[in-house]
From TrEMBL:
EC number of this enzyme: 2.7.13.3
Domain of life: Bacteria
Cell compartment(s), UniProt: Membrane
The species this protein was found in: Desulfonatronum thiosulfatophilum
Domain PAC, chain residue ranges per copy: 204-256
Protein's recorded name: histidine kinase
Top-level EC class: transferase
Classification via PANTHER family: C4-DICARBOXYLATE TRANSPORT SENSOR PROTEIN DCTB, SENSOR HISTIDINE KINASE
């Protein structure tokens, strides 16, 4: 009960009390008048004094007194009840919020104080009504302006109220069923959240599908809230629908896109791995991984990518992968332990702010084996070309051995003992020349052996010296001088020393033939018979140059010089594979090889290899 209603009841009770007292007062007055009338009519027999009062006089007197009494009662009643009636009427209109004129409480007395109190209550009510009106206006604005569909429904799922957006979207009318208006159904939904809220008094959330009045499909997230009366009973349920149609369409497009790229990912004809950049653990891989390695996805995902490397090469390639460098050639093992060769191309990507290495693994076993066969054939051809030089090199230690043997034979025939110092010198010559011959033979065996394709840390200067030692006799026979310009403080590169030696020998063969061709057609001085071997390094690469003083190369030939089977030599003087093999080996180690030349100015071949542990080119 409000303060206004309570005060109104009190005032009504007070008014009833005053009316009762006034009525009692009038009754007493009438009783007194009747008593006087009886006394006057009966008279006093013991004192007969004065003139006799007639009955008419008494009746007139009584009527006058009664009139005066009634008039007095009316005046008193008006004075008492009118302020109270005004107060009650004021309270009544105040409680309804229809009248806000303050009562006049300037008169002294209890009614003035009562009017002041009533005015204070009216001010409080007016303030509360203003706050209520503001809240109602705000809630109405929210109800109408919120960017979602809002309805209030009864237990029969009929619309009691709905906001402006709902009316615009569906052209709805009150008392229509919700499921018919915006869900296009003839009966309630199977899992109706409004019905659940009526049942348990709790909010519920679901996803619903429906149609707008233009027939376009829609998707909503539906939430409900109970509306209760004073007793707590759920009398209605508010249902709020947030349109997620665009989100659903995007989800469908995303699913299609994911399916599309998943199909592409799985059908790439090479093995593709998604690796954690920090740990190199496999996060995902495509279907071709299983075909290449024999593992199923579950056996690889979560494991380190290094499990696929051959044990003797894992550490070297781990360093390369951590440096985000491509691996031009690596030895991997399948599930059965069989070795095969792969190239690994690495790309850095970021997924959810996490660095990922996308590693593309290509099986190059057939190509490597074919290259090995070609290289081996080229080596055999080189050894064949070097036969004369090797024979000359072996003849020298053999001649020394023969000379020493003849010396000992003469001494034996003469039954003479050789001088101890002379014997020591002869023995030393035998040992030195045997070692020299052994080195020549061992070097030929190593050169002719198939490489194991295992990359290790290699010093380019050492490989270049070995190649020149092996091929040097060929140059001496042709009176070709070698000039050295080496950078002694040189970092290592990752390569197979035997394969790298093959590159340098092929370049030396090419330089020798170029000088021979030039000097075959004209007189040459010693300055025309020079090969310069130069090395240098920078922050990321080791550079090797092989420079000859041959006739040079035309621009047209420079563009084709590294093509397989391309040769400018006469038929029978070469296979045309030497420089092509150089190109393949160098690029296998992520290096480059170029030639710079002009006619009559010689040629300069430049081999560039990345320093071990440096980032790959372009990274």
């Amino acid at each position: 009960m409000t303060n206004t209603s309570l005060l109104n009841e009190i005032l009504q009770s007070l008014l009833r009390s005053l009316t009762f007292r006034l009525s009692l007062l009038m009754a007493l007055g009438l009783f007194a008048l009747m008593a006087v009338f009886l006394l006057l009519v009966g008279g006093n027999p013991g004192h007969p004094a004065g003139p006799a009062i007639t009955f008419g006089d008494l009746l007139m007197l009584l009527t006058s007194a009664l009139f005066i009494l009634i008039a007095f009662a009316l005046i008193v009643s008006q004075r008492l009840t009118r302020p109270l009636n005004n107060v009650m009427e004021h309270l009544k209109t105040t409680s309804h919020g229809t009248h806000w004129v303050d009562l006049d409480y300037t008169h002294a007395g209890e009614f003035g104080e009562l009017a002041a109190t009533v005015n204070k209550i009216a001010d409080s009510v007016r303030l509360r009504n203003q706050e209520t009106d503001e809240l109602l206006s705000m809630y109405q604005s929210l109800f109408e302006g919120v960017p979602c569909l809002i309805t209030v429904q009864d237990r029969d799922l009929r619309l009691i109220r709905y906001n402006r957006l709902f009316g615009e979207q569906f052209g709805a009318k009150p008392v229509e069923h919700c499921y018919k208006i915006y869900k296009g159904r003839d009966q309630k939904c199977l899992n109706c959240p409004v019905e659940k809220t009526f049942s348990d008094g709790k909010s519920h959330t679901t996803e619903e599908n429906g149609f707008y009045k233009d027939g376009s499909p829609a998707h909503w997230i539906v939430s409900t809230a109970p509306i209760r009366d004073r007793s707590g009973k759920v009398t209605a349920v508010m249902e709020m629908c947030l349109d997620i149609t665009q989100r659903k369409e995007l989800e469908q497009k995303l699913k299609k896109s994911e399916k599309k790229y998943s199909t592409i990912f799985d059908n790439i004809p090479v093995a593709v791995f998604e690796l954690d950049a920090e740990t190199l653990d496999v996060r995902n891989c495509n279907r071709n991984m299983s075909q290449l390695y024999g593992y199923c996805k579950g056996e690889v995902i979560g494991k380190s990518f290094t499990m696929l490397f051959a044990p003797d090469s894992a550490n070297v390639h781990l360093e390369a992968m951590r440096s985000r460098r491509n691996i031009p050639q690596a030895k991997h093992l399948d599930k059965d332990g069989q070795e095969f060769f792969v190239t690994i191309d690495i790309a850095r990507i970021f997924l959810e702010k996490k660095e990922i290495l996308l590693s593309v693994v290509t099986d190059v076993t057939d190509r490597i084996r074919a290259e090995q066969q070609v290289i081996q054939s080229s080596k055999m051809a080189t050894l064949g070309e070097m036969a004369a030089g090797v024979a000359h090199e072996l003849n020298q230690p053999l001649a020394v051995l023969k000379m020493v043997a003849n010396f000992f034979l003469r001494k034996l025939r003469k039954a003479e003992l050789p001088d101890p110092e002379e014997l020591r010198q002869m023995t030393s010559k035998i040992i030195n020349n045997v070692e020299r011959a052994g080195k020549i033979i061992e070097h030929m065996r190593e050169f002719g052996r198939k490489p194991n394709l295992q990359s290790t840390h290699v010093q380019v200067n050492q490989v270049l010296r070995r190649a020149c030692d092996f091929f040097g006799e060929q140059l001496k026979i042709r009176d070709i001088q070698v000039r050295w310009d080496l950078d002694d403080d040189q970092p290592n590169v990752l390569a197979d020393p035997n394969r790298l030696e093959q590159v340098f020998i092929n370049l030396l063969v090419n330089a020798r033939d170029a000088i021979e061709d030039k000097c075959a057609s004209k007189e040459c001085s010693q300055a025309d018979r020079v090969i310069t071997l130069r090395t240098r390094s920078n922050a990321r690469h080791v550079v090797t140059e092989v420079v000859d003083t041959g006739p040079g190369i035309t621009k047209e030939i420079v563009g084709r010089i590294f093509e397989p089977f391309f040769s400018t030599k006469e038929v029978g003087r070469g296979t045309g594979l030497g420089l092509s093999i150089c190109y393949d080996i160098v690029t296998d180690y992520d290096g480059t090889i170029h030639v710079f030349s002009k006619p009559d100015q010689g040629a300069r071949f430049v081999v560039t290899l990345p320093i071990a542990g440096s980032p790959r080119n372009g990274s």
